[in-house]
Each structure stands twice: as structure tokens, then as C-alpha cells.
Protein: MBL fold metallo-hydrolase
Amino acid sequence: MQLQPRHTGKKYVNVLPTSVSPPSGYGKLLGRYLFEKAEREPAQPLGPFRADAAALAAPVPPAALRVTWLGHSTTLIEVDGRRFLTDPVWAQRASPSQLVGPKRFFAPPLPLAQLPPLDGIILSHDHYDHLDEAAIRALAGRGERFFCPLGVGAHLRRWGVAAERITEATWWDKVALAPDFELIATPARHFSGRGLLNRDSTLWASWVLNGPQHRVFFGGDSGPFDEAFRQISAAYGPFDLVMLEIGAADPEWADIHLGPDNALVAHRLLGGGPLLPLHWGTFNLAFHAWRQPVQRLMEAAGPEVTLLLPAPGQRVDVAAGPLASYWWK
Structure:
């Protein structure tokens, strides 16, 4: 039986018992924040990084599979003649305020105004580091479609996106864009909310892009969820491109973020395929050194794992094989 989200009537609940609060308590976290000495932010400015806006605006070939990582979980995916944007965040800070909160390590490599035409904007959940109100307001007037988990559409409508351009989905819902191209919302293990009063009022999800030539998995945010990854692989794998989070992980919140090692477990359960790590190297959201996720991923990945490690804004032709830009050095 396929996994289904649980709803109490007031909020969504993870299928597995899941701790969002740190088991050791917030006092211990405060001590770590004050006294641990990891280089959580780059000591020197990064970039500037520049995406090739003109090249990205060219028509997508019908058999192409290319991806451009724009930072954190924001990617531009070119697949089978179509173009999609994931979790658009252009904000300077991943925070309710642009005055305080985690600040970007580098400027977005592609100005929002230079985004090419899109076949869809895919959202995984409503946290500030994945859903940027200012970016959505800027995108709202372009006439493109948004695909999001249940409940997230209310944010979009409030920010100016026309209701008819929003498709909300629960896990395993299929959205047909053409007879041979569909998007499928798939399970994840996380949480949601943009304030103290709306925790878990909206659903979280991963997504499959299922085209005539290629299949792409966008993991959004998730903790370890072996049965979900097995089910996703059985239904839609193997994948030509897998995108999983590796950063902002810590033993204190191990249920809701994968980290590098669990990302490799998830990658294997999904059936392998080229792996583009997300959710690292852009904001200080954890206690680890900012380079640690990618360094550990490279150390732990076996030779059978094709790692795609482009610089921000660097367009990747997935079929070209492994890529390690070492931009973080």
C-alpha cells in the first residue's frame, strides 16, 4: 500500500514518529551556537557567480536533460523540451525578516528578472528557505503554473498568483502536462509552517518529473524515509537525475534532514542515477562547517555514485557524467 500523509483535522503528521524539537533541548543548542567553533559561514566572500542567461533562454531540445543549481534548493531543470524552477528563493535572508536571520553566502547567479520562460514552478513546502514571498510576488505576473503540496496554494493566492494557475497535490497525485509528461507529488518526511501559529498546517512533498525521455527526482526536504524511497523507486525509478538535500543536518534533528550519509542511503534506495546535492553552501542553517556536507558526501560516495557538483549558476548536461567544480575551495 502506498504511503499517504496523515491529517488530524488540524495539521499534518508524519507517517513515522518524527522529532522536530531537539532531544537535548534548546539550552544545549544555545550553548553549541555560542561556543562551537566550526566555520559556519565563509571567511571570504564567495563569487560572484554568473549563469548564462542567454543560453538558458534558448528553447530546450526535446531530448535534453540539463540542470542549473542556483543555490540551496533552487534549480532550473531542462528536461525533454520543458523547463522548471524548483523552490525559488532569491531573498537575501532565509527568514521572515530581511533584517535578521540566515544571510546568503553569495548573490543569486541569475537575476530573477532574467529567468527564462517556465513550464512550471515546483514547490516542496512552505519554509522560508524554500518559499520566498518576494520571489513569488515577482513571478506571479508571468502567467506560469505553480505546483505545490496541499495548503501551500493559500500562500500563493495571498501573494498574487491567480488561483487557476495553482495546482495543489497530495502524495501520489499525478498532474498531466501533456500526454507524455507528468509531475507526481511523492512522500517526504519533514514539517511545515511560517510562524508559531501555523506549524504543519500545510503538506510537504518530494516530486517526480516524468517525461518521455527522462525521469527526475526532486527530494525537497526530508529526513530518512526508507519505505517512501523504495516506493518512489518502484513506481518511477530508475531516475536519470536525483536531487537530494545534504546540508543543515545535525543529530539533534536527524528525523527531518538527511545529511550526506543518509542522502547516499536514499539515493541507493531510489535506484541510483546522477546525484545533484541540494540544500547546502548557501545559508547558515546548522552547526556544521559550511563546506562539511559536500566534503563528507565526496568522502562517503562510492565510485558507483555519479556526483554532480557544479558551481552556482553552472549549467550541467547530465549525460556528460561526473562533475566536481570545487567552487567551495
Remarks:
- The chain has one domain: 27-320.
- The first strand starts at residue 6 and ends at 7.
- Residues 27-320 form a domain with the Metallo-beta-lactamase; Chain A fold (CATH 3.60.15.10).
